[in-house]
Design a protein that fits this description.
Elements (H helix, E strand, L loop, with lengths): L1 H21 L46 E2 L3 E2 L17 E2 L9 E3 L7 H6 L3 E9 L5 E8 L2 H11 L3 E2 L2 E3 L2 E3 L1 E9 L3
Parallel strand pairs: 3-10
Antiparallel strand pairs: 1-2, 4-7, 5-6, 5-10, 8-9
Amino acid sequence: MRTCTITISIVVHVIAVCAAVIAPLFATRAKVEPPRPDVPPLDVPHGIAAEPVIEPVDDHFRNDNGVIAIGDSSPIVTEATPPPPPAPPQRVVRVGGNIRPPQRVVDVAPTYPPLARAAGVEGVVILEAVIAEDGSVRDVRVLRSNPLLEAAALEAVRQWRFSPTLLNGEPVPVVMTVTVAFRLH
């Protein structure tokens, strides 16, 4: 009984596969090939109208130099004005050597995150901050941190203010490393 079922199953599958392969070969529709982009058509397709003719522009308003005169015959000068030169890049200096670190004049203590406090997490967050010419904290990026403490440290440091750092008597932006410590008491 089992051998008979397997034999019938194989025969039915072979017939189905043959029908799927052979049936398209006997299709009566003509095979339509897609147009090849490198070969132009040999005849004009039906239903395509000729393009409208565009009249040339009347040049009686142009003078001998090719400048168009409008109304009072004042010429329109279309010289391209060069863009202004780019501002010189502001050089950010790093604290160290002859560059003294700016003094913090506004200190905002970080708020200990409740989740970190409940978990008993302590540690430090090390940040790199760019102090602008006016002493505000312009950019801050994390160098090393505990994910539970990172947001609180960033929020506090962004509120700090520093004395301007002078280089040759001019205020300059300065890059410095900042460490924020979180300790449970």
